[in-house]
């Protein structure tokens, strides 16, 4: 049987009017799930994604909840159509929570609670600490690591290894800026400032991770019904304590995305489906010739992906 993996995106996948093609039918599952989520967190997420009179501050505060809800809604729609189960799931940063909900490890309402707090704590880190996040395109990881080390004790960390060609750095604003300039001198093709206003996955996040750990204590996490490859260790944890520890470490550790994709490929899985409102993860994998990358960012692409995955199933 031809297996596939489901991938869930993180922050940065949002845009105005995302998912609009899914909301066209009356009383559909998307509206139901967005209403449910809005009630849980006491904020109108539908208004946020349609960009109707929302404050910029609300955007930062609730965008993670909106992305989580988008992925859950698309997944529920997949299930409603009797879509096949993937062999593996994995989520990029925030996307790890979407994966854990879809794998029945965390209740949706609990994930919303955690993600809302996660946003709040991330915002707290920037109050006294100007930060910056940049993507370094076309430079070897080892070179970037060495440049980062030269700028300590100021914090600048590798936040995410997205592919051989794209590495994200994060941390103290001036240090990240200097590292970016150095990377350019050392031959990076591009250095791109990302629209993220917190020092994601850097050690500046360590102090708030303790508060996060405390809140996680009251949340029940079950063993996932579908294996979820985590961000920090690139393994599928089943144990509640270990899953929680990995989520806390994810706050201030590198997202090892390239290794996650390599692990999926090592299991002879070459079809991957992005469950989210955009094509961020699809674009990262695009250059990987032997992978069939499908996405669900609108109704048309969802239906194409659905057909391909179920057609493949009959052929094997």
Automatic annotation (TrEMBL):
InterPro entries: Ac_transferase_dom_sf, Acyl_transferase_dom, Acyl_Trfase/lysoPLipase, Mal-CoA-ACP_Trans/PKS_FabD, Malonyl_CoA-ACP_transAc, Malonyl_CoA-ACP_transAc_FabD, Malonyl_transacylase_ACP-bd
GO cellular component, one term: cytosol
Domain Malonyl-CoA:ACP transacylase (MAT): 7-298
Reaction catalysed by this enzyme: holo-[ACP] + malonyl-CoA = malonyl-[ACP] + CoA
Entry-linked SMART domains: PKS_AT
Pathway participation: Lipid metabolism; fatty acid biosynthesis
Alphabetically ordered keywords of this record: Acyltransferase, Transferase
Listed PANTHER family: MALONYL-COA-ACYL CARRIER PROTEIN TRANSACYLASE, MITOCHONDRIAL
Name used for this protein in its record: Malonyl CoA-acyl carrier protein transacylase
Upper taxonomic lineage: Bacteria, Pseudomonadati, Pseudomonadota, Gammaproteobacteria, Enterobacterales
Gene assigned in the entry: fabD
């Amino acid at each position: 049987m031809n297996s596939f993996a489901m991938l869930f995106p993180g922050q940065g996948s949002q845009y105005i009017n995302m998912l609009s093609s899914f909301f066209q039918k009356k009383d559909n599952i998307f509206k139901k799930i967005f209403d449910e989520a809005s009630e849980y967190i006491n904020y109108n997420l539908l208004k946020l994604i349609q960009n109707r009179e929302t404050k910029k501050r609300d955007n930062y505060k609730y965008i993670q909840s909106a992305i989580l809800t988008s992925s859950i809604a698309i997944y529920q729609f997949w299930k409603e159509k009797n879509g096949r189960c993937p062999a593996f799931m994995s989520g990029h940063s925030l996307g790890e929570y979407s994966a854990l909900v879809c794998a029945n490890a965390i209740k949706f309402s609990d994930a919303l609670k955690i993600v809302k707090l996660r946003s709040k704590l991330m915002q707290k880190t920037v109050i006294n600490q100007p930060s910056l996040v940049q993507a370094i395109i076309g430079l070897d990881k080892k070179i970037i690591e060495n440049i980062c080390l030269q700028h300590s004790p100021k914090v600048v960390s590798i936040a995410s290894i997205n592919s051989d060609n794209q590495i994200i750095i994060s941390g103290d604003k001036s240090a990240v800026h200097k590292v970016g300039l150095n990377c350019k001198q050392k031959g990076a093709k591009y250095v791109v400032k990302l629209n993220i206003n917190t020092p994601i996955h850097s050690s500046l996040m360590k102090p708030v991770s303790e508060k996060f750990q405390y809140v996680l204590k009251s949340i029940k996490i079950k063993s996932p019904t579908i294996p979820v490859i985590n961000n920090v260790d690139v393994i599928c944890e089943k144990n509640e304590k270990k899953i929680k520890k990995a989520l806390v470490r994810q706050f201030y550790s590198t997202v090892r995305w390239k290794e996650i994709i390599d692990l999926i490929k090592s299991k002879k899985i070459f079809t991957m489906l992005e469950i989210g409102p955009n094509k961020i993860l699809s674009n990262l994998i695009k250059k990987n010739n032997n992978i069939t990358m499908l996405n669900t960012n609108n109704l048309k692409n969802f239906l194409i992906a659905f057909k391909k995955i179920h057609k493949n199933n009959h052929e094997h």
